[in-house]
Amino acid sequence: MSRAVTHDSWPTRILAVLAKEFVQLTRDRLTYAMILMIPVVQLLLFGYAINNEPRHLPTAVLVQDSSAMARSTLAAFVNTQFFDITHEAGSVEELDALLRGGRVQFALTIPGDFSRRIARGEGAQILLEADATDPSATGAAVNAAAGLPAKALNHDLPGGLAARTPQSPPFEVVVHRRYNPEGITAYNIVPGLLGVILSMTLVMMTALSVTRETERGTMESLLATPAQPIEVMIGKLAPYVMVGLLQTTVILVMSSVLFQVPMAGGWDALVLGVLLFITGSLALGFLISTVARTQLQAMQMSFFYMLPSILLSGFMFPFRGMPEWAQTIGQAIPVTHFLRVVRGSLLKGEGLETLWPSHVALGIFVCIVTALAMLRYRRTLD
Amino acid sequence: MSTPLASTNLAIDVQGLNKSFGDKHVVKDFSIQVPRGRITGFLGPNGSGKTTTLRMLCGLLTPDSGTGKCLGFDIVTQSDLIKLHVGYMTQKFSLYDDLTIEENLMFMARVHGLDRRQERVKDALDRLGLYERRKQLAGKLSGGWKQRMALAATTLHEPDLLLLDEPTAGVDPQARRQFWDEIHALSAAGLTVLVSTHYMDEAERCHDIAYIAYGKLMARGTANQILTKVGLVTWQGEGPGVDRLSPEIAKLPGVEAAAPFGLTLHVSGVDAQALDAALQPYRHAPFTWTRTQPTLEDAFIHLMGQSEDNYR
């Protein structure tokens, strides 16, 4: 019998294993789908969604000068394509609130004496305030604004005034970088990491912990007991809430100690945001575990969720730099809203009164995902 | 306890159960009555729907159609109540490998919301001789100990009905015997037991037998009743080389099965005359033939041959 084994049969054996693996792969439809989806999604994201020089950033204006020159200046800002005028504020307070609440990236003020000062050659100024929590979102726009005065009013300056243009610009753009004046990237990235790390570990850990029961057969025993689905869910998730809170503490302490990230306040918004986000991530993990049959599938699905969470949430690339469709997807991702809460509270010191829309969004996510998970959780083995 | 429990002498009473997975009709029009306090053996070949039926009885699977009661509770609408009074032991070990014996039992006690948990767990550990090993991880136990621990976990909440799915598969004979002694002790205390098995010696230790093949109930009754009903005639052949004749004899008309048992050969058929005729050419030296009592195994193999195999 031993003569049947020959040394040159190794390609056959390799082919046999290869064919078997291939067949197994095609039988596991979810893995198959993931193999296709991951490159497609990555290509789409990197190819279209990621824009490091974001344009059309929402801008609020406060125009206290009703002259043609002020209108031309505004038009010049819009023409750079970096600024989209989305709000017209009626007062300084309103303008400030829009910027603080993160509704706009820029606040532009044209003072009442703008055109008069230009006419007199007295060095007119306009104020551009930028929300610099994410330096990469504002950098290019601020540069473009700085180049504006030299050409913005070329057509508007009549006769004698036009003749002066070559010498010195008729006005000056004063730029205030708010919240992160030095443009330190770590300030933006480190709080963002809180969202990414929390969702990566929590989603995956819960997804695995429930799928493990299915895979090892212990789910059958568990289902045969009188335990109700909601009891099982809470019982399985509660330990991970502790894990999440521990991770949050570690990350915040490290941010403060190692990166000197400012802790400007907004603790009420931060605490509620963290709790909502942890709950949402755990519920999502549970939902994944009701779909995945094996731990491997659960792992893959968790990664599938992580991909847009990193790329489309504003963690890695400026949210406003993405095309509209990508922003729409980003709005559906809890990390996006969580990052707004963390950056708003830690860097700007904002509380619940300005950041509440993000909390509402997180709350909606928690409700939807929990409901889906409860619906999907099988009380039987059907 | 609620009234339905006391209202009937039947622990299980189901009619016309059907269950399909995809296009596989696993359980077909299945009806069974199991009286209280008896040990009923649930027998049948692999894939015959035993596990599916047990799972439907304890509410782990919803039947596609059919009605019935388990301990007086409706199996479709009252599975929550059934779960309180039924102990179900899965075929595959389904407790936590990474917990100790004691932790596993404590978990089950808590999940069932039992009172006096410490006491109950200690009692169960003592009764099944697990006390010395209570700090061992379940994953490190051998098959026999795992199965004892599973029985402890299954009986912790003092169920009225035990559903055991091949509890002794892969367990050594001594551990099997101890396990069956325990089952009989529980039965004597008033528990109803439905136990699926492949082992014929275990079938003989049951009060009643239900034989299921390919989703259908084929035979029901005590071991003797089933043997009488099947009405097999079995001849035992002895003599040098008689066991090697089985392929040849099996093909003869009137012979349903010819199986070597050690050095002897068992030849069975339902038609005594046809069987006689078939064996006529072999009734000479060195062979001797004697009528013998057919075994349960002969009967089941006969039943299996009769049943229509819907997987082929």
| CATH homology group of the largest domain in chain B | P-loop containing nucleotide triphosphate hydrolases
Distance between the termini of chain B: 47 Å
Low-pLDDT segments, ≥5 res of chain A = 1-8
Number of strands of chain A: 5
Portion in strands of chain B: 25-35%
Top-tier CATH class of the largest domain in chain B: Alpha Beta
Q: Please give the number of β-strands of chain B.
A: 14
What would you call the shape of chain B?
A: globular
Distance between the termini of chain A: 47 Å
Biggest sheet descriptor of chain B: 6 strands, mixed
Write the H/E string of chain B, N to C. EEEHEEHEHHHEHEHEEHEHEEHEH
- Please give the order of strands in the largest beta sheet of chain A: 2-1-3-4-5
Average the pLDDT over all residues of chain A and give the rounded result. 79
How would you describe the overall organization of this protein?
The complex is a heterodimer of chains A (382) and B (312). Chain A has 382 residues and is of the alpha/beta class. Chain A has 2 domains: 122 residues, abc type-2 transporter like domain (abc type-2 transporter like fold); 192 residues, no CATH class. Helices cover 64% and strands 9% of the residues of chain A. With 312 residues, chain B is α/β, with parallel strands linked by helices. Chain B contains 11 helices and 14 strands. In chain B, helix 3 crosses helix 4 and helix 8 packs across helix 11. The relative contact order of chain B is 0.13. Chains A and B meet through helix 10 of A and helix 2 of B.
In short:
The complex is a heterodimer of chains A (382) and B (312). Chain A is an alpha/beta fold. Helices cover 64% and strands 9% of the residues of chain A.
Question: Which features would summarize this protein structure in a list?
Answer:
heterodimer; A: 382 residues; alpha/beta; abc type-2 transporter like fold; 2 domains; five-stranded mixed β-sheet; 9% strand; B: 312 residues; Rossmann fold; Alpha-Beta Plaits; six-stranded mixed β-sheet; four-stranded antiparallel β-sheet; 11 helices; 28% strand
